[in-house]
Amino acid sequence: MQSNHEKLVAHFLEQLNLNNTPVSAETYSKLMSIQSEIVSIEDVTGYISMLGEELNINAHTTELIEKVEDETSILIHKLKFITAADRPKVLVLNQIDPREINQSAYLQESIKIAGGIPTTIAQEADKIIIIDSNESVFTRIPLLLNDSAIAHSKAIELDQLFIMTKPDFARIPGYEYLTELESLAEILQPKYFVYGHEGKEWLQFQLK
Description:
alpha/beta, 2 domains, 6-stranded mixed β-sheet
């Protein structure tokens, strides 16, 4: 079974159509040293850049870096004039029972880029996102509503509960970076973004 690090390297090589490119243990080691530090878009592109340098495929990685930067810039530009009042506070849960709040710096940064404000305080939440691709998550929603702070949040009042059905969403920083950003943008700022990920990467759970 591939480690998360191997998955990330393989993912970028696949995007570059260089699936069979050999990667030495030394290169894996160098990349691994910066993978844990991936938080921002600059970190993602920096990782891709190092991959290009180590494998001598800079011509390929330069194009991928430009794509990541351009697509992210478009998203950021669309939200440039959105005030803090129009950016929902977002609570992300890794699981329902026992309740586990996601505090990943990488995901929090992605939420900010996608037009939200991350929070770890349940009663503040305007939107709640649950990261769970297991179908049984739907049967556990009532357990979530037993938490009074969540039950009385604006997210529940306004029917703003979302399930990330994409396996391992945001668990490997940088992996499918653009797809994950787009999914968050669709959830957090639906007036501005429709990428077609609803029903594939995420679902809105109808409480009413």
